[in-house]
Amino acid sequence: MSSSSQPAGAPTSAPHPFDLHGRTAIVTGASSGIGAEIARALGAAGCDVVLVGRSADRLTAAADEVAATGAAQLAVAADLREDDAPRQVIEAAIERFGRLDVLVHSAGIYAQASLTDTSDEMFDGQWAINVRAPFRLTRAARPHLTRGASIVFVSSMSGRVGSPDDCAYCASKGAVELMVKALATELAPAGIRVNAVAPGNVHTPINAELITPELEKEIVATTPAGRVGEVADISPAVVYLASDASSYVYGASLAVDGGFTAQ
Which residue in 8, 47, 207, 254 is deepest, having the highest Cβ count within 10 Å? Predict the structure, then answer.
């Protein structure tokens, strides 16, 4: 008997609860920032990943990062605001991998403006991407999601606490928080879990110009963790919610904000 062989009757080791081998995930907003890191982390956990984003060039670069983990991947360039985009994304995923186990809604936009400076277009634009798009994609994905599937929304601490000049964004993320709870109760009987991750202030390309040195000092001073978050702080929470480790978690919104909303 070789030294690597197990004795007869020895128990086999159970799969790690965070192991996602054999599963397929769709990640929106995957061309950069939080979405790209989520896609990479899911790939590192063994998941096949369908990356969705508007920029084909950036999406290709993000897909290469997933491929470097050894995971299979597919890049789908799509604008989720378009009427036919949800169908196209889901069909591409099923055609390539034949199944869908995880759906991560990471695509989002942020526009800061006071009440009087927030135009209808600014308000509607954030609603279209942050609320309507994930709703429509979830609806399109539903026929392909079976027992054990997981849907994860990337919400925000702005869905929990208000801040000046953020009315439109806070409204959209507040809607996400309640949509998660509603969908969780609706889909739980089918064994489909719906949850959210609610990041705090995080360094991403979308806010690189917004977080000035002065603002960063203010964030650090008002965040119990004493720092601004990084995209790598968010992705492990998504992997957890996508995995069997969270099999009894339904309708939760996991704050990953350095303790900001705990105050």
Answer: 47
Q: Give 105's Cβ-side CA count (13 Å radius).
A: 33
Tens of pLDDT, residue by residue over 59-74, are 999 999 999 999 999 9
Q: What is the pLDDT of residues 124-171, one digit of tens each?
A: 999 999 999 999 999 999 999 999 999 999 999 999 999 999 999 999
Q: Which of 169, 240, 248, 250 is catalytic?
A: 169
Q: Tokens 């991407």, residue?
A: 129
DSSP code of residue 202? B
Q: Please, which residues bridge with residue 104 across strands?
A: 27, 152
Domains in the chain (CATH in brackets) are 24-257 (3.40.50.720)
Which phi and psi (to 5°) does residue 25 adopt? -125, 145
CA-based torsion, 131, 132, 133, 134: positive or negative: positive
208-211: Cβ within 8 A, 24+ apart: 210/112
Residue where the block lists tokens 């027992």: 147
